[in-house]
Amino acid sequence: MKIIGSDYDGTLNHGGIDEEKLAAIDKWRAEGNIFALISGRGKNDVVRIYNEKKFGCDYLIADNGAVILTTDGKIISETPCDGSIALELIRFMFELGCPMAQVQTDKPFRVCRDISECIEGNYYLIENAPSPSYFTQISTYLDDDKSAEIVTAKIRERFFDKLNPLQNGNCIDIVRHDMNKAKGLYILSDIVGCKKEDIIAVGDNINDKDM
After folding, report:
1. d(CA 26, CA 106)
2. Residue 118 CB: number of other CB atoms within 10 A?
3. Is 175 helix (H, G, I), strand (E, B) or coil?
4. pLDDT in tens, 180-202
5. Contacts of 9 (CB under 8 A, 6+ apart)
6. Quick one: which of 109, 172, 185, 202 could link to 5 by a disulfide (CB 3.0–4.6 Å)?
């Protein structure tokens, strides 16, 4: 048994998943292997994508490896960050020019730097934002890739022993200091009893480099 862990945006999906890829995944799984979708997106988004696309898949890995789910949305592994640092991190992100912070927890929510960034839904300003007991990822974006690179470096410098900021173009996903997509695949391999040397990883962006 082997595992393929594939990134979604820009790797599996290019304006849709073409028939050749779908056929290859089906053949891979028919031979007794595992196919896992792995993404920097939050768990709700990853489950939604699977339910919409309905491609052959055994496991869903969200939040850059921090959350592993079955395809029906059941969480089988979660690697959380200490929620007590969430608001400190978000304030620092706002100081660096980030316009918002998407917090992945049991009930995901968004914190906006300015009222103009807030729209209908589960949105807060920093003054009234809840302090979560934990989070699996906090995400944001900048105007361009270079700005995101600079902010990523500053977050890493300040929270090096607690958090791992992962740049993906002009976006930044922040997970626990020991978490990344490779670690998520290693956790999955332990769950299913697969050797680590039998993992194949496919990606296309900076946050895929570890795997």
Report:
1. 32
2. 15
3. strand
4. 999 999 999 999 999 999 999 99
5. 39, 41
6. 185
Q: Rounded distance, CA 179 to CA 65, Å?
A: 7
Question: Is the predicted pLDDT of residue 119 greater than 80, yes or no?
Answer: no
Q: Answer yes or no: are the C-beta atoms of 77 and 67 closer than 8 Å.
A: yes
Strand 75-78 with 163-168, pairing: unpaired
pTM beyond 0.85: yes
Q: What is the mean pLDDT of residues 97-114?
A: 95
Measured CA to CA, the distance from residue 141 to residue 149 in angstroms comes to 11
Q: How far apart are CA 141 and CA 40, in angstroms?
A: 13
How far does Cα 33 stand from its chain's mean position?
23
- What tokens appear for 65 in the block? 């490896």
Q: Which of 8, 4, 31 is nearest to 205 (CA)?
A: 8
